[in-house]
TrEMBL record:
Pfam families: Peripla_BP_4 (PF13407). The keyword Thylakoid does not apply. Belongs to the bacterial solute-binding protein 2 family. Its main location: other. Residues 1-26 form the signal peptide. This is Sugar ABC transporter substrate-binding protein. The lineage of its organism: Bacteria, Bacillati, Actinomycetota, Actinomycetes, Pseudonocardiales. InterPro entries: Bact_Solute-Bind_Prot2, Peripla_BP_I, SBP_2_dom.
Length: 328
């Protein structure tokens, strides 16, 4: 072998050895201006929670507590506002959109009145989660998901419970005119009860008149042996009304407060349908944070159910301690 050939082979071998000792070539970074690089949004998220609750309503105070606690835990700025008038609630939504909030949580007791405002929020790029009422309209309006109990199913459970107790004639007390969720509760109760069900309209903002109307109903028809109220504060009025006329009717209710807990313990209310409204405040804030930071959508196109959970004498001691602290 010639000297020149040996020298060439040595060079080739050296190159092969160098190639074997080096790892794969690192990926090159894109050149400046090659395209946008996605980054995670920074800074605290601002969420507007806008409900149809009326002033002083214990139910909505628990929803507010849940939303604000989620905000504290997740470093989210939560702003809670409410108005029982659908037109005024729509204006609150419009104001939140004008202020360019990062997320919107809305209860839809009167979906049609809020439709334009919610759709405007979605068009503005603001993610919306609906809560409590309006489940069947939520996806159509563009909301990410709905958080609450299915009102028809909850009503069926209440009606079924009264049927199991041997009741024959049920009065379902509606306290907010035009609230689709309350109509669904009474309709569900009719299905679950499978007996004679009547409805009575009262006004939650006039509790004295509400009590008077319930008293008149049970006094006029002594065959009424069950009264279903759709709100914990109305339940207390129903108990007073029944006592005043010496009726044998028993009261079941939707939602909890300290008065209802005491009434269940005393046997004056036989059960409460708890939709765990703390979750209706807490979970949407968490979901919007996940959506903003990680593009997560919870529910898979279906509502996230928070109830119903029936509370009676067997469970009231456990649940009651959380009602006392404002989280049930």
């Amino acid at each position: 072998m010639s000297h020149r050939l040996r020298k060439a082979l040595v060079v080739v071998a050296g190159l092969l050895l160098l190639s074997a000792c080096t790892g794969p070539k690192a990926e090159e970074k894109p050149a400046a201006g090659a395209g946008p690089v996605k980054t995670q949004p920074s800074g605290p998220l601002r969420v507007a929670v806008i409900s149809h609750g009326t002033a002083g309503d214990a139910f909505w105070n628990v929803v507010k507590n849940g939303a604000e606690e989620a905000g504290r835990q997740l470093d989210v700025q939560v702003e809670y506002n409410s108005d029982g008038d659908p037109g005024n609630q729509a204006k609150l939504i419009d104001n939140a959109v004008a202020q360019q909030v990062g997320g919107l949580v809305v209860s839809m007791a009167n979906p049609e009145a809020l439709k334009t405002s919610i759709e405007n929020a979605v068009r503005a790029g603001i993610p919306v989660i609906t809560i409590n009422s309006g489940e069947d309209k939520s996806a159509g309006y563009g909301a990410l998901t709905h958080v609450g109990q299915n009102e028809t199913i909850a009503g069926e459970e209440a009606g079924k419970k009264f049927r199991e107790l041997g009741k024959k004639k049920l009065l379902c007390v509606v306290h907010e005119a035009g609230n689709v969720g309350q109509a669904q509760r009474c309709d569900g109760a009719k299905t679950g009860f499978a007996g004679d069900v009547q409805t009575l309209q009262v006004d939650i903002s006039n509790p004295t008149d509400a009590e008077s109307r319930i008293r008149g109903a049970v006094q006029t028809d002594s065959s009424l042996d069950a009264v279903l109220t759709l709100n914990s504060q109305v339940a207390a009025r129903a108990v007073s009304a029944i006592k005043a006329v010496g009726s044998a009717a028993q009261v079941g209710t939707f939602d909890l407060n300290t008065d209802v807990v005491g009434a269940i313990k005393a046997g004056e209310v036989v059960f409460a349908v708890d939709q765990q409204q703390y979750e209706q405040g807490y979970l949407p804030v968490q979901f919007l944070k996940l959506y903003r930071d990680n593009a997560n959508v919870v529910g898979g196109g279906k509502p996230v159910l928070t109830g119903p959970d029936l509370v009676d004498k067997s469970t009231v001691d456990t649940v009651g301690q959380y009602v006392q602290r404002g989280t049930r």
